[in-house]
Design brief:
Helix content is 40%, strand content 16%. Strands 1, 2, 3, 4, 5, 6, 7 and 8 form an eight-stranded mixed β-sheet that branches. The protein is of the alpha+beta class and 306 residues long.
Length: 306
């Protein structure tokens, strides 16, 4: 009889302990941060492993184009499960300009987010993406500036959509130069178009040998180009950049976790090893009057203008 009582008592205690364990596990199981991105894929959540471990959170990445993100957020309203939007270009930011995003408290931004930059419409710039020139080393003369592509060389690009950002850089520079005539800008852009040829996908037996204009992230993700020992990369001295950006979705279900993610990125914003996984370069902080810099805000204003 005593053995039966002991058995039932043991069973009861095990049941209570299991129930407690389940209850403790439930909050953790529901602790999730959902990121919608036009360049990250579900498998890329591994790059945020340290953050997920420290915060005890599951990172879910939904890959979709910027226009699809906008449609999804408008359709879902405040019921969306997306917490953050992470895009790879100012073109994407422009496409999402009609979508409202959550402002972050000024004290949090000013005191804790020193390495990333907030711009209009509550977007945070978290890294830059330089436009590079790359070509096969040979005896021929090759360009060292963007301007030469509009007059002296034939070039191609696998990254045409993002070139709108580069064209906006050109427009901005001509606007700032009082001595430059309007037809000078047209000549620059027309020459760029006239010298562009179709991009050729290379193969293992016939690698691409074209002079290419592209973003650094696109080069890094193109393994055939990136692994070619014959290819040379040129970062022109007056460098044009595109930008990666993050925004918090209004009424994000895990708002506090979105702030933790921004802190995590801020801590890694100058970590080249971390950023290189995405093809991202650190933001550069120029002192007033020094260096070459065109504001991303100015570029955004010019993106939709011809």
């Amino acid at each position: 009889m005593d053995k039966i009582k002991d058995f039932f008592l043991l069973s009861f205690l095990i049941g209570v302990l299991c129930a407690c364990s389940i209850e403790e596990a439930k909050p953790l199981a529901h602790k999730k941060l959902v990121i919608a991105s036009d360049f990250l894929y579900p498998k890329d959540s591994k790059y945020f492993g340290a953050f997920a471990k420290d915060e005890k959170v599951h990172i879910e990445i939904i890959h979709m184009r910027a226009d699809s993100i906008e449609y999804r957020l408008k359709k879902d309203g405040y019921n969306t499960n997306i917490d953050l939007v992470f895009v790879h270009s100012l073109v994407s930011v422009k496409q999402l300009e009609n979508q409202a995003f959550q402002p972050i408290q000024n004290d949090f931004q000013d005191q804790k987010l020193k390495q990333i930059k907030q711009i209009k419409h509550n977007w945070f710039l978290v890294g830059r993406d330089p436009f590079i020139l790359t070509f096969i080393k040979d005896s021929l003369e090759k360009p060292s500036t963007y301007r030469e592509l509009s007059s002296d060389f034939l070039w191609a690009s696998p990254d045409l959509a993002s070139l709108e950002v580069m064209k906006a850089h050109v427009r901005y520079q001509f606007q700032q130069n009082k001595d430059a005539k309007k037809n000078g800008l047209k000549k620059w852009l027309r020459g760029l178009k006239d010298h562009r040829v179709n991009y050729q996908e290379g193969t293992k037996s016939a690698k691409n040998r074209q002079l290419l204009l592209m973003k650094f992230s696109a080069y890094y993700k193109n393994k055939q180009l990136e692994r070619s020992k014959q290819r040379e990369l040129v970062f022109p001295p007056n460098l044009y950049n595109d930008y990666f950006a993050i925004a918090v979705v209004p009424q994000a279900k895990n708002y506090e976790m979105t702030k933790s993610f921004l802190l995590f990125w801020n801590e890694n914003a100058a970590n080249n090893r971390f950023l290189y996984r995405f093809g991202i370069k650190p933001l550069v902080h120029y002192k007033k009057g020094m260096g070459f810099y065109i504001s991303p805000v100015e570029i955004l204003e010019l993106l939709s203008k011809n």
